[in-house]
Here is the input.
Amino acid sequence: MGGRELCASPQKKSPAQSPAQEAGAPVAPAAAGLPEAGAQKAGAETTAKKADEPKAEKPKEILLLMESSAPVRRLLVEQLRNRGFEVVEAVSTMDALHQFTVKIPAACVFACMLNSMVGTESVVPLVRRLTQQKKTQQLPLV
Here is the structure.
């Protein structure tokens, strides 16, 4: 009673079937609203290719760091690089000016000792020069 009755039960027709489908004629997958097997395979290959391709990294913002003390400079460079910046180092005002001829950074960080006028005295002429040049006038100076 159990197995035969299940097999003999009539199949329900889908309301969206065409007369050809009702008659049992083969229907192309696209006509039935389904993607073709080749399209599925191609889609899978495209996905696999995308996963294999290296992702293009966003270019890092360049910061110019001017600090004469090597231990302080190393610490600051490490912290800035850990935050995703490319750091160009300068140990003096002249070195910083030279770095501007190589690359224009997105911003400048001047690490000066606050208890010494020597640090600020060397930065002031540099800041004046940078704010007078057209290509560096809008550059953030910290």
Notes: Residues 77 and 87 are 6 Å apart (CA to CA). The mean pLDDT is 73. The two ends are 87 Å apart (CA to CA). The helical segments are 2-8, 19-22, 37-52, 70-82, 93-102, 117-132.
